[in-house]
Design a protein that fits this description.
Layout lengths: L1 H19 L7 E8 L2 E13 L4 E7 L3 H8 L2 E8 L4 E12 L3 H9 L2 H4 L29 H10 E15 L6 E7 L3 E5 L3
Antiparallel strand pairs: 1-2, 1-4, 2-3, 3-6, 4-5, 5-6, 6-7, 7-8
Length: about 190
C-alpha cells in the first residue's frame, strides 16, 4: 500500500506542477461530459487541485453547454497524459459548477486581463452564426473597464471535479503498469490488468 500512496502522491504533485507550468503535460487535459447519451470532449486548462478533497478544477464560460450538461448528468471523465513519463491518468468523478461564489471571485481576481477577455465574448459559446465571427470584444485587454469586468465576471465560472476514481497507467515495454485508485467511502488501490 505504501508504494501505491507514493505513486498517487507523485501524481498529485505533477498535477500541481501542471497548474503553474504552461508547458507541463498536465497543464491541459481532456474533459468529458454526457449530452443526450453521447460523450462530448474538450480540452481545458487545469486551474486548481485539492488533494485532501480529491478535487481538480478549471475555468469555463457559464453560458457554455457544460452547465446544462452537468445539470442533466454530472458524471464526468478527465484524461491526462504525460508523454515524457508515459503516464496516463483517467479520472472519473462528479462535476459541479461554482458561479458567483467566494472561490469564483478569488479565481477571477487572480486572472490576467488577457485571460479575462475570453469572458467578454458577445455570444455564448456554441452559438450558431450565419458567418464566421471572431466572438471577441472590440477592446483589447488593457482597455477593460469596470463595466467590462462586471460583464465578464457574470460569464465566468469554476468547474470542479470531485474525483471518485483514478485509473493510473504507465506504459512500459516490459509490461504496462496499471493501478485503480478509488476514493469513495474508503481509499483503496489495486493493481489491475492493462
Amino acid at each position: 500500500m505504501r508504494n501505491f500512496k507514493k505513486i498517487l502522491n507523485n501524481e498529485w504533485s505533477e498535477l500541481s506542477h501542471g497548474i503553474k507550468k504552461a508547458k507541463h503535460s498536465y497543464h491541459t487535459f481532456t474533459f468529458c461530459t454526457i449530452f443526450e447519451k453521447i460523450p462530448e470532449a474538450r480540452t481545458v486548462v487545469l486551474r486548481n487541485t485539492n488533494k485532501s478533497k480529491h478535487l481538480i478544477s478549471f475555468h469555463s464560460d457559464f453560458r457554455s453547454k457544460k452547465y446544462q450538461q452537468l445539470k442533466d448528468n454530472n458524471n464526468v471523465c478527465a484524461l491526462f497524459y504525460d508523454k515524457n513519463r508515459k503516464v496516463q491518468l483517467r479520472v472519473n468523478g462528479l462535476g459541479s459548477i461554482e458561479h458567483k461564489s467566494k472561490s469564483c471571485i478569488k479565481s477571477w481576481n487572480k486572472m490576467s486581463k488577457e485571460s479575462k477577455i475570453c469572458y467578454l465574448a458577445p455570444l455564448a459559446p456554441s452559438s450558431t452564426t450565419s458567418k464566421f465571427i471572431p466572438n471577441l470584444p472590440t477592446i483589447s485587454p488593457h482597455q477593460i473597464t469596470d463595466k467590462d469586468e462586471a460583464f465578464g465576471y457574470q460569464n465566468f465560472c469554476v468547474v470542479n471535479i470531485k474525483i471518485s476514481k483514478i485509473d493510473w497507467l504507465q506504459l512500459d515495454h516490459k509490461g504496462h503498469k496499471r493501478i485503480l485508485f478509488e476514493f469513495n467511502n474508503d481509499f483503496s488501490a489495486n493493481w489491475i490488468a492493462s
